[in-house]
Amino acid sequence: MADAHPPPNTAAPNDAASVPSKERLRTRCCYCLSKTLWIILVIIIVLAVLVILVLYIIVTPTSFRFHVTDARLTLFDYAANSTLRYNLVLNITASNPNKKLKIYYDVVQANAFYGGVRFSTTDVNMPWNSYLQDKKSSNLFSAVFSGEHVMALDRKQVSEFHEDEKDGVFPIDVKIRFTIRFRLGDYQLGHSHPRGICELKVPFTSDGEKVAPFNPTKCQIDF
């Protein structure tokens, strides 16, 4: 009679395989922790974006407005030596339509052009540097262009100058460069650098009288 042998234990390997090793447990923990951190980071970013969006909607920033309300041109003479002599004074109204934002005007620099050629650069006269304009308010400023400038006009431009001289009204473009900051309560919202252009028809003033009325002109502001 043959000896009876116990059947081999085949369950032991399977049981061993079912027990995670320490390395597997460590890998799973690292994966779970990394996944949790990424989820928290995404949630924080989404909440920050939502807060900024809500604040933007509440504040509703609106571009300021510039109008040239008056222009006085008492000298505008182009000599044979290609020198333009000029004296131009602009009165400007700046309006802040925002209900919650104040505006710091740090730099407001104006460049005057005739026939597409720049002939003068000046600063818009503010009461002081970094002028703070209150919300829902308007203020009066001025810009003075005075002096002489050598500018080589071609034959066509010289002919157009003499035509304008006869009419007594000169097309002068004023391009303005701004450096501004918005202020919300006690917080300042960084620097912005918008630009503006004022396309003017400026009547010549002789003996204190203008040859034609000046039409107040709205400047186009581009952020």
TrEMBL record:
Keyword Secreted recorded: no
Keywords assigned by UniProt, alphabetized: Membrane, Transmembrane, Transmembrane helix
Q: Which Gene Ontology cellular-component terms appear in the entry?
A: plasma membrane; plasmodesma
Q: Where are the transmembrane segments?
A: 36-59
- Per its UniProt record, what InterPro entries does this chain match? NDR1-like (IPR044839)
List where in the cell it is found. Membrane
What PANTHER family does the database record attribute to this sequence?
OS05G0367900 PROTEIN, PROTEIN, PUTATIVE-RELATED
Q: What is this protein called?
A: Late embryogenesis abundant protein LEA-2 subgroup domain-containing protein
| Organism expressing this protein natively | Phaseolus vulgaris
Biological process terms from the Gene Ontology for this record are:
defense response to other organism
Superkingdom to which the source organism belongs: Eukaryota
